[in-house]
Amino acid sequence: MSGDFADMELEDFKPPIWMRGAMMQTILASRKFRRKAAAHIAANATAHILDCGDGIRLKGSYTEHPNAKGVIIMLHGWEGSEDSTYVLSCSRFLYEQGYGIFRLNMRDHGDTHHLNEGIFNSTLFDEVFQGVRHGAEFLPDKPAYIVGFSLGGNFALRVARAHQDNPITNLSHVFAISPVIDPVEAAPAVDRNPLIKRYFKKKWTASLRKKQEAFPDVYDFSGMLEHKSVMDMTDRFLSRYSDFKNPDHYFAAYGIGKDDFLNSKLNVSMIMSIDDPVVPADAILKLNLSPCVRRIMLEYGGHNGFFQSLHGPTWYDDYIKCVLKAENS
After folding, report:
1. Is the separation of the CB atoms in 181 and 282 below 8 Å?
2. Could you tell me if 287 and 181 are in contact, meaning their C-beta atoms sit under 8 angstroms apart?
3. What is the pLDDT of residues 161-211, one digit of tens each?
4. Which alpha helices (H) appear in 146-294, and where do they start and end?
């Protein structure tokens, strides 16, 4: 790939003019008004504390479908949770298509800070892989699918990558929405937009305070929280609570490599918007992909947005629905 967006065929996605803006699409993804219609997903879910190896425990919630065609495993973004609006909304839509829903919390997300003394960072892949495997086992004789958003999209792609050598038997398709491909490029972008910086700094600060409250003898983030940028907080965090030499070393450790999906035999869909204000879209163009992997570039959509209307399904909801129908017909 040359890296030029002109080389990509843009999909037919034209939201109303008033909601085409990247920030509008991004903000809508987390607006709580969308959660009301999905309340039954959480209300009818059964909570599970999962043994994910090496003493690590993750929490997930499973909403059983009486006539399930398969199971959908949902992976939230950084500082999101199983109850993030975009997770619940997509879960509701896919449940209505006839699928059981398993929503997994990463470590220290969704009020699970007390479950593990060790603190979350984005390189902690093995435990998420085991959590996904547990999710797939709810319906071991039917197909399993992953839908991941942002950092959850990055984890979803890493699961798909690991699946090549360590298969999850019934895993059928991985959908990555606005995935982080190159964290070295993506992480600094959080600080460039004041609204996005404020959002993530507020969320991370609250999360760190919960961790300190759960383990007061282990963590003291008081000095770190005084930093005004997410990148400065990250630098301080890594120097005190990790073995990484610097942020670039850390970010490189969980990126998606150029040839990671060159020989993939698993069906994968990567959905990205050109105007994403959180994750630079050009990183996805550098990937060399097998015929099983589809790269979808949309002109609009923001980050985790892709709204076609205010209350109806998103573009990716409809896309996933069409794929599931085709693969199960």
Report:
1. no
2. yes
3. 999 999 999 999 999 999 999 999 998 999 999 999 999 999 999 999 999
4. 151-163, 183-189, 194-214, 230-241, 247-252
Identify the CATH assignment for 5-185+257-327 out of 3.10.20.600, 3.30.1490.20, 3.40.50.300, 3.40.50.1820.
3.40.50.1820
Dig out the tokens for 289 from the structure.
């992909």
Q: Is residue 35 within 8 Å of 88, Cβ to Cβ? A: yes
Cα angle vertex 277, ends 249, 30, to 5°? 105
pTM check: above 0.85: yes
SS3 18: helix
The tokens 């993506």 sit on which residue? 186
| Two tokens, residue 54 | 């090496």
CA-CA distance, 193 to 185, in Å (whole number)?
14
